[in-house]
Amino acid sequence: MLTTYTVKSKNTNNVWEFKYDLNGNLKAFNVLEGVLSKKQVEWLFRQGKFPMEEIDVKENWIPNLKQNFEIIIGEVDLSFDAFWNAYNKKVGKRKMAENLWNRLSKAEKLLVMLSIPRYKNYLKYYPKQDMMYATTYLNQEAYKNDYKVAG
């Protein structure tokens, strides 16, 4: 579950891609077209313009860099396939899980996607506990549980 910002330079052929997780943390930076010039490296990395958090793009890049860049925001993928791949326990009844998924509101889908990494981390600390089937996870609203690890 990543939000993608595609940044296209109006002055060069450069196209950059930044991907952030649902908590706004940078997960990937790619140069899709062009090559970073020395000036761009200086600006991005030495002058501190590199957007390590999504809020930097939203509050600084989008309002202040319109003159030089076109910034395209990709929506968070809340499709069933995105859930199925993120949950990644591909056993059980896929069609039933998809029907449960389709009944969720957008807010619930976001909650589910945010909960998956916490749930998987929780399971690492309790290896004797089996991961729920996707249908169980959705049907029992396990995504609403607080998966804290004692430590």
Q: What are the main properties of this structure?
A:
151 residues; alpha+beta; 2 domains; four-stranded antiparallel beta sheet; 6 helices; elongated
In terms of structural class, how would the helical and strand content be classed?
alpha+beta
Strand content: 15-25%
Overall geometry:
elongated
Major beta sheet summary: 4 strands, antiparallel
Task: Give a verbal description of the structure.
With 151 residues, the chain is an alpha+beta fold. It folds into two domains: 3-73, no CATH class; 80-144, no CATH class. Helices cover 42% and strands 17% of the residues. It contains six helices and four strands. A four-stranded antiparallel β-sheet has the order 3-2-1-4, covered by helices on one side. A hairpin with a 5-residue loop joins strand 1 and strand 2. The chain starts with a strand and ends in a 12-residue tail after the last helix.
